[in-house]
Amino acid sequence: MMLNARKLFKDISDLPTIPAVVSKVVAQLDRHESEPDQIADLILSDQVLAARVVRVVNSPLYRTSTEITSVKRALLHLGFNKVRDMILTSYFINGFEGKSQPFDMKLFWMHSFSVGAISRRIAARVRYADAEKACLVGIIHDIGKVFLGHYCKDEYGRMLKEIENTSYTTYEAEREFFGTTHCEVGLCLAQRWNFPAVYCDVISNHHFSERATEDPLLTAIISLADFYCLSHNIANSLAQAAVPGFSEENSWSILKQLSKAPIASGLEHFLSELDSDYEEVSREVDLIFNTMTAL
């Protein structure tokens, strides 16, 4: 399936790119020993990037008592992890903005942001070391669908139409239609954009957590967050809901094994505990969507 995914990229000349400075900033932000001054200088070398950071820190998403105009102050106010997440998310959204799709992009982003928000909460419950990283990877886990929807628009649209009102998942249908899936395609895209290895691993394996090698716990978190969000929203052909299967059960086994905190004895009980956060998550997702899509 990886060979078929790479073939899809072979003749594409207009693939969105992420500026090299963004990759450098993200790499620095991933290193907790980096100095704010060093990162601020790197961000300031790209006026568009600097403007985005300042705009986001002053948005309703991170409302401050006084306006922040300094990149360094924005870094200190938001923290390295939130800035990292905001930068990658905004450039990914911008990269595919205006590119026609056979599906509703608002629904796609609302699902993606919901997975990010739920991933953060699951990460906190199991005491995962970087809950903000879980949120980011949750947001970008399905990036392969955006590629397939644009560059294989007619075929992907036909596929989505055929699986409407069926029990087929997009993963199963993609494998039959294209001989590959959004997981392999997403991995190819993440590698082109020089995403960190752990991000690539989760994107590639979020339907098969047991295959993850970089961070199985993070992959399991994203997998279960994805399932939770599908089961709490009206399913559409782009993101088909399903009953828990081998993928979710494997993710649950990994979560129980690697959690650093006591968790519920069963998957259904564990997921139901997230329901108390659902209303708050919905408000959070609205804010994230309105902020990020306005950049």
Radius of gyration: 19 Å
pLDDT under 50 segments (min length 5)?
none
Structural class per helix/strand content?
A: mainly alpha
CATH architecture of the largest domain: Orthogonal Bundle
Q: CATH H level of the largest domain: which superfamily? A: Hypothetical protein af1432
User: How many β strands by DSSP?
Assistant: 0
Give the SSE map.
Layout: H1 2-9, H2 20-30, H3 36-44, H4 47-57, H5 71-78, H6 80-95, H7 105-125, H8 131-140, H9 143-151, H10 153-162, H11 170-178, H12 182-192, H13 197-205, H14 216-231, H15 246-258, H16 267-272, H17 278-292
Give an account of the 3D structure.
It contains 17 helices and no strands. It starts with a helix and ends with a helix. By secondary structure, it is mainly α. The chain is globular, with a radius of gyration of 19 Å. The protein has 2 domains: 77 residues, no CATH class; 196 residues, Hypothetical protein af1432.
Task: Write a concise keyword list for the protein shown above.
single chain; 295 residues; mainly alpha; Hypothetical protein af1432; 17 helices; 0% strand
Summarize the model shown.
The protein has 295 residues and is mainly alpha-helical. It has helices spanning 2-9, 20-30, 36-44, 47-57, 71-78, 80-95, 105-125, 131-140, 143-151, 153-162, 170-178, 182-192, 197-205, 216-231, 246-258, 267-272, 278-292. Helix 7 (105-125) packs across helix 17, helix 10 packs across helix 11 (170-178) and helix 14 packs across helix 15.
